[in-house]
Amino acid sequence: MTQLSAPxxxxxxRGKLLQEDARRHHRALLLQSLFRDGPASxxxxxxATGLTRVxxxxxxxxxxxxxxxxxxxxxPGGRVGKPATLVGFAxxxxxxxxxxxxxxxxxxxxxxxxxxxxRLRRSAAxxxxxxxxxxxxxxxxxxDLVALAERPVLGVGVGSPGVVDPGGTVLDAPNLGWHGTPLxxxxxxxxxxxxxxxxxxxxxxxxxxxxxxxxxxHLMVLRVGTGVGAGLVLGGALLHxxxxxxxxxxxxxxxxxxxxxxxGRTGCLETLLAVPRLRARxxxxxxxxxxxxxxxxxxxxxxxxAPVVGALNLRHLVLSGxxxxxxxxxxxxxxxxxxxxxxxxxxxxxxxxxxxxxxxVVLVGAAVLVLNAELxxx
Amino acid sequence: MTQLSAPxxxxxxRGKLLQEDARRHHRALLLQSLFRDGPASxxxxxxATGLTRVxxxxxxxxxxxxxxxxxxxxxPGGRVGKPATLVGFAxxxxxxxxxxxxxxxxxxxxxxxxxxxxRLRRSAAxxxxxxxxxxxxxxxxxxDLVALAERPVLGVGVGSPGVVDPGGTVLDAPNLGWHGTPLxxxxxxxxxxxxxxxxxxxxxxxxxxxxxxxxxxHLMVLRVGTGVGAGLVLGGALLHxxxxxxxxxxxxxxxxxxxxxxxGRTGCLETLLAVPRLRARxxxxxxxxxxxxxxxxxxxxxxxxAPVVGALNLRHLVLSGxxxxxxxxxxxxxxxxxxxxxxxxxxxxxxxxxxxxxxxVVLVGAAVLVLNAELxxx
Lengths: 378, 378
Known about the structure:
Two copies of one chain form a homodimer.
Chain A: H1 14-37, E1 40-41, H2 42-49, H3 53-66, E2 69-74, E3 85-89, E4 95-100, E5 106-112, E6 118-125, H4 132-148, E7 153-160, E8 163-164, E9 170-172, H5 183-191, E10 195-199, H6 200-211, E11 218-224, E12 228-234, E13 237-238, H7 269-273, H8 275-282, H9 287-312, E14 316-320, H10 323-326, H11 329-341, H12 344-347, E15 351-354, H13 361-375
Parallel strand pairs in A: 4-7, 7-10, 11-14, 14-15
Antiparallel strand pairs in A: 1-3, 2-3, 4-5, 5-6, 8-9, 11-12, 12-13
Helix pairs in contact in A: 1-3, 2-3, 4-5, 6-13, 9-11
């Protein structure tokens, strides 16, 4: 935790602060290089980052002391002269406490390594808790995970349902009874750790971008569950949108002749794609009829998403949800419909697939929220 | 132009370069503050940018010497003590040579002030020139404008049709016979000035963002002409997309039962919205039937764009093209259709309007390309 100075008295003169700002920026450059590209020598790092050898050695020394970077010995291979010593991002330096509040009736948590590996899981039933009671439940789960950590905890990352503002206030999550609930502040005050909260679909998009196979920096993750929501990483950065509601596509009307929606309108994307609707449409059908029905849904999904994929020139469209529904005819028909509707320059390069990260995509994305904010890596 | 050092011999030691990097960054912070927020005292600037008073005074001194910033005298109003001296961005310090290559059969150019004011215009007929001949025509127009400038020329900005890569190579502009044409390099080599090229719709989006009333940082400009294309500024930054083709929505199929398109498919957005198609559909109709037909087009446009506006949580959607077609029933019906199809949290805040900048939107956007790259302002 940061030690604050006495009121009205700055901790350090301004010039010093600016130097520290540059130092923090350079430190993040080095960590990012080791995180994305793997072990490197100090000379490699100087070349990759444009920093001087002296600055690199100085900063690497500090990072080794902190335990975030480790010495890995001489570079393998028989070059002439003194072999370079490699350093690498230390995967066991820290844990991240990660929470996924988007599951139906449960809050799920995990300790996640900076490599994205889930070390340990815990969860708790919501049992109808709402408002402050739901916040208290989340706090308990986070506290349990902090207590279970065997390494320093870098911070707490949370993927929450609903619209979340940049300060970590949940503007609207009806299922948990949260309306303008300052979740990030509440957890930070009680845990004394850095806390970062984002919408679950946005968190999933960060997870795919950093730990999945969708690292192009131009991707949309469509989460299909009880509801439907998307997260967008564009040009490598998470899109928030004007009112923090980017990706909220579940209640966009995509078919005016579609089914009635709980929101009172007709033909929202959720009526096409939400899991309960899909199950109701295909359960009990024989395999051929089931495949037909899922392909029909895929065709309509492709038609609805073509303007989005085209306007954004996306590289990856990732479907995240039950594989028995999404994998196969639905994903195939969505991809076909998109290609038929897009210019070759966009459609040919598009990769549509289901997420390999499965249900963990929000948890590992929550780790990215923390890695990004605290270390500058993603 | 930059004076290059002898091969293999760095011009300056690294540490010095890093300091210059910081200096350039701080200089851009000051210019951006004066550009966006208007005149300020040195103390105001220190507060706004977080730089020290000493750094601000030093940098402002340099900017006044260069002529980019001017002393404006004492702040009006009767405060006690010595009144603060204001400095401001100098609108007459420089000209930007701006080119719009998206018009039908003409290349249009202008000298544009850093305030976005068009000082002087020139244009030339294309007369079927293609490939290198078209590049030569553009070069001649740019040269004429450089010769006409009465102030230092900050650089050359170009809005070109087609997909343009980040290095200013036009990947594909069939009307000018350009395929992989290094337009930026060709102009830079012959003019000896900084040159920045982008797609015309992307350039228009920058123009609206900086000089129009769509300064939210979350906007799409839809250009409606012989073809249809969009430009997106998201989170304040121009979106390029995976293959530099963001905004290329003209040949996205939006209606499988629509009209046949020149590209060989059916129901592309261009068949709905391109000016020749619109005119063919409404010319000769009586006013009521014409309004009906335009409103029908607007309804279909709103349906096609709803997933885009929803996914991106846009604040501004700007239609740019002939006002007699776009203003009125078409824009009104598009807005209605969007609101009906979007969640209130997104739809209520959406502003849909036609561009005030008219046909100048690409020219002033081309100035933003240069201001942004050369001074760090936008």
